[in-house]
Design goal:
Helicase, Ruva Protein, domain 3, about 45% helix, alpha/beta, 8 helices, Dna Topoisomerase Vi A Subunit, Chain: A, domain 2, two-stranded antiparallel ribbon, single chain
Length: about 200
């Protein structure tokens, strides 16, 4: 039975529910916050609230943004003819670090996984098809994690995209099987972009 006040226990529970943070790390984070002055803690709390109050999905790609368009979609210097499809918003950050891609992105917000009831209807596919109907996309790069779910989604997308006269490529296997894009280093991602293959 914990001797900590319920308020502290509740915050520890929230922290420990985050990915990669266990009970001990959660406790350390909460005790760190308790040592901060009131203004710092309030600022931290306001920043967390801002995630829900100020952040929306980009109308074009599905990235998190504070406006209707994210900074990438709003950047006219980006190549409008190449679209890189990723599973999650965090994958965009990883790919951008490679410095190899200068087109636009499309975020699915998940991968097909029938066992978890993630079906095509639950992915961000309607916006993708709307983009393709406009006719300016000439190449699609499939940049999904090399996992069973990623490969299943790749196969589904290839079938879906075949009706459009678009070049479809996927990242080369510089990425380890079973790995996640967010953990890949910049060199591996750069090589994967350079060695992408037709599908």
């Amino acid at each position: 039975m914990s001797t900590l006040p319920p308020t502290i226990q509740k915050v520890i529970a929230h922290f420990s529910a985050l990915p990669g943070i266990g009970q001990k790390t959660a406790e350390r984070l909460v005790f760190y916050l308790l040592k901060q002055n009131r203004e710092q803690t309030l600022d931290f709390g306001q920043a967390l609230l801002g995630l829900k109050q100020n952040i929306q999905l980009c109308n074009q790609c599905g990235q998190y943004a504070e406006q209707n368009l994210c900074s990438i979609c709003a950047d006219k210097r980006r190549d409008q003819n190449i679209l890189c499809i990723v599973a999650e918003a965090i994958d965009v950050a990883a790919l951008e670090k490679s410095g190899q891609f200068h087109g636009l992105y499309h975020i699915l917000h998940g991968l097909l996984n029938p066992t978890e009831n993630i079906t095509p209807e639950k992915l961000n596919l309607k916006t993708l098809e709307n983009k393709l109907r406009q006719g300016y996309v000439q190449e699609i790069i499939l940049a999904l994690n090399p996992t069973v779910e990623g490969e299943t989604t790749n196969l589904y997308l290839i079938k879906l995209l075949k009706k459009y006269t678009i070049k479809i490529t996927k990242l080369a296997r510089g990425l380890p099987q079973g790995g996640d894009l967010e953990y890949a280093d910049e060199v591996t991602l750069a090589n994967a972009f350079k060695g992408r293959t037709n599908v």
